[in-house]
UniProtKB/TrEMBL annotation:
UniProt-annotated binding residues for Zn(2+): C98, C101, C138, C141
Organism per entry: Micrococcus flavus
Pfam families listed in its UniProt record: FUR
Location(s), subcellular: Cytoplasm
Name of protein: Fur family ferric uptake transcriptional regulator
SUPFAM superfamilies hit by this protein: Winged helix' DNA-binding domain
Family: Belongs to the Fur family.
Gene Ontology MF term list: DNA-binding transcription factor activity; transcription cis-regulatory region binding; zinc ion binding
């Protein structure tokens, strides 16, 4: 699993613009997420190690934490799933999750602006975002599903 370097110069500029130090692991993590959106930390680690074999687990976890804190990466954690990561697009999109295989795909927000949902009671909060997960079965899982057994609503997502 090797990283496709879309534009390392753009990733370095992105890090600088966010006030972050440019390091090879940070650039590699961003590149990995461009190649494999919605990857979990172990998948990001495997991709980064293809280019930087000496990088530690902790370095990749630290990079994900710092990049998420800076708003460059978004952490997603659908119920029953390990955290997954994507480049933060700031486009107010949502996600569709397959109950069978755990595939996670982007779907646009219906309204396009945040927050797209409004709580009936805000309890004094200033709400600026709504996170939506749609759940179902992807076409591959639907085609392979045993018609005698309905899908479980509590199936763990890998």
């Amino acid at each position: 699993m090797s990283i496709v370097h879309a534009d390392p110069a753009a990733d370095r500029a992105l890090l600088r613009a966010a006030g972050l130090r440019v390091t090879r692991p940070r650039v590699a993590v961003l590149s990995a997420l461009r190649s494999w959106p919605h990857a979990d930390a172990s998948s990001v680690l495997a991709a980064v190690r293809a280019d930087l074999p000496q990088v530690s687990h902790q370095a990749v976890y630290d990079c994900l934490h710092v990049l998420t804190g800076a708003g460059l990466v978004r952490s997603l954690q659908p119920a029953g799933s390990a955290a997954r990561y994507e480049i933060a697009a700031h486009d107010n999109h949502h996600h569709l999750v397959c109950r069978g295989c755990g595939t996670l795909v982007d779907v646009p927000c219906r309204t396009g602006s945040a927050p797209c949902l409004h709580a009936p009671e805000d309890h004094g909060f200033l709400i600026d975002e709504a996170e939506v997960y749609y759940w179902g079965l992807c076409p591959a899982c639907r085609d392979g599903q045993d018609e005698a057994a309905p899908p479980s609503s509590s199936a763990a997502v890998p």
